[in-house]
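For reproducibility, we list the full input for the 3-methyl-2-oxobutanoic acid complex.
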Amino acid sequence: MQKRSTLLDFRSKYDRGEKLTVVTAYDYSMALAVDAAGVDAILVGDSLNMTMLGRENTLSATMDEMIHHTKAVAKGTKQALVIGDMPFMSYQGNPRDTLKNAGRFLKEGGAQAVKLEWGVDALAVTKLLVGNGIPVMGHVGFTPQHVHQLGGYHQQGKGKEAAVKLLQEAKALEKAGAFAVVLELLPKDVAKKITTSLRIPTIGIGAGPYCDGQVQVLHDMLGLLPDFHPKHAKAYLRLHESIRGAVKRYAEEVRSGKFPPAS
Ligand code: KIV
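The corresponding predicted structure, in tokenized form, follows.
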């Protein structure tokens, strides 16, 4: 049986200067394909609230939903590291609840690490989880769980003061024990400065080419949502059109009697 990558494998690649590849997945069949492609890590992102559940933003994803999807991904993953995304308000309450929620990703979901977004409690939570054996990936810059506070989906870290603040947050996460930090929607030079200042990997999305690795939302890469094409994403396929075409052909063949064949 093939063994899943560990944090040490992730770290070794970073130490060797190899780019790290991370992509989201949310169910068993997609995890099988993504894992077979050989990515380093699969993030069960709370973006599933939009991509899989059709909701407006990530805020209403629940712990039970995240665990349900994480279990399915873990089942389909043989080689990649699996990281579960802590949903909004699952790590802002009392430490006991935070620990319990994070622990569920490892105990029930089969993930090896969790990700959490920057916020007033992020450092204390990171220390708490890491101290209890739960590896943490941080997330700074545009943090989708703060979409209302940030006033929409905008680039962060513009201007010297904002850039310095992001660098301080990323450094503080490193000090608190995070094993990596996602940098989302930042000017590329700010991401570069953070990347060269840290001794843990930065994983960029909409943050330019100088991060230690990249993460993409699978549905954006595959063109699965017909009306959503974020600027920072590259669609390697137009799967929505392919699926629509295939199902249309199937329906036509059933109606015309071509499928199933008589013999
Ligand atoms: O939920 C998610 O998919 C994420 C990535 C955009 C990093 O947090």
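The radius of gyration is 19 Å. The chain has one domain: 7-238. Both points were considered when choosing residues for closer inspection.
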